[in-house]
Automatic annotation (TrEMBL):
It comes from the Bacteria. SUPFAM superfamilies: Protein kinase-like (PK-like). Coiled coil: none annotated. Its EC number is 2.7.1.72. This is Streptomycin 6-kinase. GO terms for molecular function: aminoglycoside 6-kinase activity. Keywords: Transferase.
Amino acid sequence: MAFEPPQRLVRALGEMPETAQDADWLGQLPRLTEAALSRRGVEARRVQAPGGRSSLVVLVTYADGTPAALKLAPPHARPDRELAALAHWGGFGAVRVLDTRHHDDDGALLLERLHPEVSLRSLPEAKALLEASGTLRRLWVAPPAGHGWETVADRTEQQSAALRAAPAEVRALADTALAMRAELVAAPPEELLLHGNFRQGKVLAGERAPWLTVGPDPLVGERAYDLARLVRDRLEDQVASSAGAAGARRRVNKLADALDVDRERLRGWTLFRAVESGNRALAAGRRRDAELLLEFAAWL
């Protein structure tokens, strides 16, 4: 079968800083996919479409008909780190890894098959937040000794470089975000394994458990950083509501209290992550997304 990458993936990769490895990845994708299928002894059924913004997912089966999913991501996505995190969770709250070996030759992950068309976004908001909170709580565990994941301080320091060079229209919010980040990393309260990119769309329906998370961008640090991305889920609906700043702050407080996270630390990380994402969206030419994110950040 042909392994044509979904256009959503092609567009998303086009917005990323290009490296020599990643520039060649899309061109090599058919060969990498065939090699990964052969190496793991599974047969392709179809490419999941529209798929994600950072990987190709092929729905596959074993010779006995057992379903699975093969995920291929470009080198910058560090699939080895995702594999390590999923293996450490061992299927508790997260998709289960069916092959825990990392193959540098293809960087693919063989995972249990979930229902990609059914995420928490299919639920009413209140129920989705309840299920999301329960799933996220399961993921926050101590990292193994000698882990190779970056820390919240490391990742946000890299992101801060772009904020320091933010355009004039983002300057005031960027300065506020940078100041908050400096205060937050000065006294981190805990070091736990975090999902790194957790939101409702990253939690899919499964057979083994009702809801399981996928697509971690793992790092080590405090829970408030991980929860911050969930705060701004369904952002267009939040901005369109009449609640405005009061509604945004209520959402921060509600999620913080539900997961025993400090309210002010959650507010700080939510603001930083929204401004960082907004600045990145602006640089990529996604002005509508940038305006929503920056408006939300200003409410905080």
